[in-house]
Amino acid sequence: MKTDFKLLIDGKLVDGVSTFDVVNPATEESFAQCPRASEAMLDEAVAAAKAAQPAWAALSADERQAYLNKLADAMEARHEEFGRLLTAEQGKPLDQAMYEIGGSIYTIRAIAGMRLPDQTMRDEGGNTIIEHRTPLGVCAAITPWNFPVILLVGKMAPCLITGNTMVAKPAPTTPLTTLLLAELAADILPAGVFNVVCDQNELGPKLTGHPDIAKVSFTGSTATGKKVMASAAEGVKRVTLELGGNDAAIVLDDVPAKVAAEKVYNGAMANAGQICVAIKRAYVPTAMYDEFCAEIAKLTKAAVVDDGSKQGATVGPVQNKMQYDKVLAMIEDAKASGTLIAEAAKPDKAGYFIAPTVIGGLSDDAPLVAEEQFGPVLPVLTYDDIEDVIQRANDSPFGLGGTVWGMDQLRAMDVARRINSGTVWVNQHLAIDPNIPFRGSKQSGLGSEHGTAGLMEYTQAHIINAVNLEAEPA
Ligand code: NAD
């Protein structure tokens, strides 16, 4: 596996001022060094992006699309290398890593094909009003450690196709797949169009506060998102924030317990629960509770927790030590105040392995119910009245996703309409699509990614309001 990585600044692959360890969460051992950028290097990256932007914006969208498609082709040619590197730095099982890379390639191509043509708002009586969109300039992408590749390309592709340039900063514990993408970009994109700097959590404020950054697209925790928003205030910068969630799954009384348990289990435990829109609390009718628990217990006990590079592993380690300690503490607290429904086995070796765990009997204000766990542990709660469960699902500062499960699709959709979050899936989960807007309500975010709405956020809208003098009465 590749262990030599460089930053990308102004089209050149360069060393940092120092390096830091990148740890494989399945072994707790360092397997590669990441170059660390200085503040001066970040300034160079922003300056390069600023210098490159006018010529990039002057290309036609079709020309920019051709560049992005070349990048997607280059990723496809190294799909497996990306997947293995992702498993090594992030921890997820290899099949899930390959899926993230495949989704990233698809996302680049899909977004590169989108356009924002002028909109005619009025054309009558000699008055023509159009809305025309232009790029913002240099945009910053700041990404977290749970999906380092697909979350990055979901920012890079709309930024570049609309004629902006970018400086990207990955999370310190998962920088390497971003640097592999940078290596491909160095050969394909014009110098300065896409730059990557890495840090140990110190460059974020400098990047978001930089006077030549026009927009910040941030994905991460709500706590950090608030800091990003505050630092963008000074320059009235555009921000897109994709933040935390505490998504409820509402199981209706007409769905078989076995079906519901399988869907809810998968929605809670994929990527070891480290998904912003993972199912983080499940609400089940009281009359179904025992059967649902028996079914979800079977699935939980069948989990194969192991190094993601081992064939057959279904749940990898959590990504880093801080998250490991946080999730274990939440599980201990929940076990003490609730009832253990099931716990998987986990390997007795080094690695941030947490056994998938399902816990019942908790009150709505228990930390595992009220806060974002971001790990492989799920609380199951009961309800008797649909109005009550809707109110409890909405009683959260978060509003990212959510799911409703029911045989009567229209009834389930009626419940979904009343959940206050950016996305509610009915009888499916995680159907994130680059063509469909994705956004959070309340403290789960601001603005949109994906779809036309997401593309618009990388542009400034101008109203051109013209009258035809020849049409005026003499
Ligand atoms: P985090 O907020 O700790 O870090 C995210 C990124 O912000 C990292 O690159 C980090 O270096 C950088 N950063 C840290 N301090 C900064 C500052 N002051 N200014 C600017 N940048 C700074 O988040 P995390 O722990 O890496 O990720 C987990 C969180 O991300 C969870 O809450 C999860 O729900 C959320 N998330 C949300 C989405 C979504 O689309 N809504 C997707 C994935 C993850």
Automatic annotation (TrEMBL):
Gene3D superfamilies: Aldehyde Dehydrogenase, Chain A, domain 1 (3.40.605.10), Aldehyde Dehydrogenase, Chain A, domain 2 (3.40.309.10). The keyword Oxidoreductase applies. CDD domains: ALDH_AldA-AAD23400 (cd07106). Residues 18-462 form the Aldehyde dehydrogenase domain. The active site is at E242. The keyword Oxidoreductase applies. Belongs to the aldehyde dehydrogenase family. PANTHER family: ALDEHYDE DEHYDROGENASE-RELATED (PTHR11699). This is Aldehyde dehydrogenase family protein. It comes from Novosphingobium mangrovi (ex Hu et al. 2023).
